[in-house]
Amino acid sequence: MCSPPSTEIPVPEVTFPDDGDDGTPEEPDEPETPELPEEPELPEEPVEPEPEEPGEEEEDECDWEEEEGWSKCSKPCNGGKQYRKVVCKNKKGHRVDDSKCRHRQKPYEERECNTELCYWDVEWDSCDAPCGNGIQTGTLVCMAPGEEGEEATQVDDPSLCEEAGAEQPETQRYCQVDPACEWWEGRWGYCQTGERGCGEGQKERDVRCLIPADESEEDPDSWESIEQRTTEEWRCDPESRPDSTMECYVRCHSYWWKTKPKHKCSRRCGGGVQEVDVYCERDDGEVVAEE
User: Fold this and answer.
1) Residue 70: exposure state from Cβ atoms within 10 A (0-12, 13-18, ≥19)
2) For residues 96 and 89, is the Cβ–Cβ distance under 8 A?
3) Which of 13, 56, 59, 117 could lock onto 52 through a cystine, CB 3.0 to 4.6 A?
4) Domain segments of the chain: what residues?
5) Is a pLDDT exceeding 70 seen at residue 144?
6) Which residues contact 78 (CB under 8 A, 6 or more apart)?
7) What is the mean pLDDT of residues 112-136?
């Protein structure tokens, strides 16, 4: 016969607390915090290589380079100087010792400029004439020639023109304005023949240079107007000036004394006395003064 299966149920083992324990079951231990994975390391930033020391450069890799352009010319004329800075650099553009470029010719760092000579010019004032001819006065200025295609410029230092030995032009000249001044002539005077009183002589008249009369002037031919409008003769055209003197001739006459009875003779015969007038008569019959 087969035996029936066992019906016993296993009882778990219970552990009782030791004496002195309050009988409270122990709390289970807290679970341990899992360790976090380590952060991945970031790649390092690229670092520019340090410039190589000058001693490490190959000379063929270095060349001269202009670091600063040409300066302003030291003088505006008569020959000045310009300067620039040229340095030796490697292929990376770093400056190195000049000895690294000794195999190449160094560009010039100095040159001449503004070699043209300064010269004198004149700034003219306006013409001072009220009419016709006048005098214009000017001021000397020292000029520096302009570069090709540029105008000359005035320089502040006149000694540059003296240094250049420039010849000074005249600072006065004749000028003309409109309207022209006009000539006026008076009447001829008597023929003057000297002590003799006849023969060749000379007569004169007044000639003046006048400022043209204003249209509003009532009597431009009056002596008062002529006096007010009289100006220097050189302001009128000298070639059209009227003559102020002219040769003349006075005929010379013969003179003799003549008498004319004033009263009858005091006696009819035998000689008497008669009073007469004595006078000087010219050959044309005109009685003239005894002088």
Assistant:
1) middle
2) yes
3) 56
4) 60-113, 120-177, 182-250, 255-288
5) yes
6) 114, 115, 117, 118, 160, 163, 164
7) 93
